[in-house]
Amino acid sequence: MGRVRFRSPLRGPWLTSVFGAVLLACLPLVVITGLLDYVAYGRGQSIPGDVGWLHLPIFDWPARPSWLFRLTQGLHVGLGLVLVPVVLAKLWSVIPKLFAWPPARSLAQALERISLLLLVGSILFEIATGVLNIQYDYVFGFSFYTGHYLGAWVFIAAFVTHVSLKLPTMVRALRSRSLRKELATPLEATEPEPRDENGLVAEDPAPPTLSRRGLLGVVGGGVLLVGVLTAGQTIGGPLRDLAFLLPRGREPGEGGNRYPVNRTAAAAGVTGQATGAPWRLKVNGAKEFTRDELLALPQHTARLPIACVEGWSTVQTWTGVRLRDLAALAGVPDPGSAFVASLERGPFARATLNPGQVTHPDALLALRVNGEDLSLDHGFPARVIVPALPGVHCTKWVRSIDFRSV
Predict the structure, then answer these.
(1) pLDDT at 70 (0 to 100)
(2) MF terms per GO, please (predicted)?
(3) Does a structural domain hold residue 285?
(4) What is the pLDDT confidence band of residue 406, given thresholds at 50, 70 and 90?
(5) What is the pLDDT of residue 290?
(6) Separation between Cα atoms, residue 14 and residue 172, nearest integer Å
(7) Higher-scoring residue by pLDDT: 299, 231
(8) Are strands 398-404 and 281-283 parallel, antiparallel or unpaired?
């Protein structure tokens, strides 16, 4: 089999370093916000699963500001998606390295190649699992949360190693050419970069069919397009209809319940019969409340966001009973935690709330939204709404709450 030949006259250390600099500036933010989102799930939630010593230090996720999880999750998913064109362009620019032979001539070069392979493999795994998770409902044969989390740590290790090895090369390459000059260079004046020791510049370059300015414009246009097709799920409004890359959460209800829903009652196995007249909220295993009795208690209204791990979020006006008021009725005036159970079955049928979340003045057992009763898909007869809490733990179809003093 003959050697694979790459003849693009655009490839070279400078172009690769431009893409690398963008990723170096942005990918750490994607990583940090992703890790913070795992912290936000809190203690005892089994997200991620058993990852041994890779578990992050746990601290109580704050309930202030109310938009905190909306910000971290929106940045993680949104920025991760808009960087996909840059990642693909960077991979295209270094693809000759993947076919270099012999693969390594020294220990340092072998370490570089291994870090490169792990970097490429892990970032493609993170992109693929992330995109599939926001597109489809639980399509994996493994836990998305655990797999995505472990893949992130492989990426972090490879990224740090690769940057440590290649940062001096990137800095030299960026200084070798002027970005302003390249953006002013038309197709007819485009020439290959000087031959380099890394083998990125083609030995026998073909005539250019696109200038570097044009290539950067194509990649920048891809970033802008993905941004337009993504931002609406966080910003909302008319842009939400353009969010083709985040179709989950596109099943709104009617009237006051017209906002996204990630999982319908049918998908959760919750029926109207289970939420009808026989339904009772059990508090600390002793007290029971009908929905009418809950409505007769002092009601509190708050306008709060709800943000989902798939990247969409929305802000609605919720009305219900403060969780701290329910705790007081249960004989726990100073609750240290709350364990919420749902009528649904599966991994998200229970949630644990920390002290700041239980006692926040806007933390509610919501009964109504935007002046109307919750619909069945949105959690009727009652759901939890807590500021800055991941949407998956704003439990719908609540059947019981246990308040603890510690």
Answers:
(1) 93
(2) oxidoreductase activity
(3) yes
(4) confident
(5) 96
(6) 9
(7) 299
(8) parallel
Whether residues 227 and 342 share a domain: the answer is: no
The reply to whether 160 and 293 lie within a common domain is no
Same domain, 216 and 298: no
Tell me: do 235 and 313 sit in the same domain: no
Provide the domain limits for residue 276: 255-404
For residues 151-175, give the mean pLDDT. Answer: 93
Least confident of 55-59, 365-369, 375-379: 55-59
Which token pair is 334? 């100073």
Q: What is the pLDDT of residue 1?
A: 41
